[in-house]
Amino acid sequence: MLADSYGRVATDLRVSLTDRCNLRCTYCMPPEGLEWLPKPELLTDDELHRLIRIGVTMLGITEVRFTGGEPLLRRGLPGIIAAATSLEPRPTTALTTNGIGLARTAPALAEAGLDRVNVSLDTLRPDVFEHLARRRRLPDVLDGLEAAAEAGLTPVKVNAVLMRGVNDDEAPDLLAYCLERGYELRFIEQMPLDAQHGWRRDTMITADEILGLLGTRYDLAPDEAEERGSAPAERFTVDGGPATVGVIGSVTRPFCGACDRVRLTADGQIRNCLFAREESDLRPLLRDGGTDAEIAERWRAAVARKMPGHGIDDTGFLQPARPMSAIGG
């Protein structure tokens, strides 16, 4: 098992397939983008297959989520997914994407065995989308959501980040859009993971504020039908249910005590927390003849050092050197 010293066991593996992205969201990176990882530093498909296999068959991983940057930019993505879903025991698989290109690729991803998708959608207004993402691609995202549902990549989940004075007036409209189409909406507090290090707690829309905004149109109540467990989202029934909406309060309502996630970056680093400032490099073992057992042992040692929480409220908190696009969600 991938156990830490606080009794938590990591069973959910987040695999970043690339640090590249085709959007330039204001809360993630500057308009000009970032300096991308050189291709030789990225894990190959075979190296990814091997690490996922070790995680699933030797270390107790039961869920694999593919992330980026933007994972749809990774060539060979269906093959990477198919290799994961062919493992025994078979892990559940998911993909976190900005939705651009999903309309074209959703059928192939479903055929490869992908179970479901999470799609980022912060606004329904084209002008606001262009302001936030610095690209005119809102129709592509909406088409991608529809294609994912048609391909059976369900439940289709939608992730939204509210920005003060930008899209915070859209919370009820986003929920109405998702309810009408059967998507599951999750609002996420903005986290200090932007490349510009411009995040400020006093300008962030908090979980309490999100619930207040939704409450102007809907009656919300804690969802008692399902235990939260290690799920990051607090779920609330909408107008008595059965539909729900989730709120992920990573900053103001941290869920570190139940965290079961571990992350693999596109260049082979194990990260035991989004906000970790330490990484464990598995790439040299992969490329210098390390055995599966040696890789598994280094992986266990990395998770064993996991801190009790992310420490955002600590006076000495420092953002990790890597931005979100280079970590994987």
Rounded average pLDDT: 92
Largest sheet: 12 strands, mixed
**Class from secondary-structure proportions:** alpha/beta
Kindly report how far apart the N and C termini lie.
22 Å
Q: Could you characterize the architecture of this molecule?
A:
The chain is of the alpha/beta class and 329 residues long. The protein is 29% helix and 16% strand. It contains 10 helices and 12 strands. It has a 12-stranded mixed sheet. Helix 1 packs parallel to helix 2. The longest helix has 14 residues, at 45-58. It is globular. The model has no long low-confidence stretch (mean pLDDT 92).
Task: Give the SSE map.
Blueprint: E1 12-16, H1 45-58, E2 63-67, H2 77-85, E3 92-97, H3 102-111, E4 116-120, H4 126-133, H5 138-150, E5 157-160, H6 171-181, E6 184-188, H7 207-214, E7 220-222, E8 234-238, E9 244-248, E10 261-264, E11 269-271, E12 280-281, H8 283-287, H9 292-304, H10 324-327
Parallel strand pairs: 1-2, 1-10, 2-3, 3-4, 4-5, 5-6, 6-9
Antiparallel strand pairs: 7-8, 8-9, 10-11, 11-12
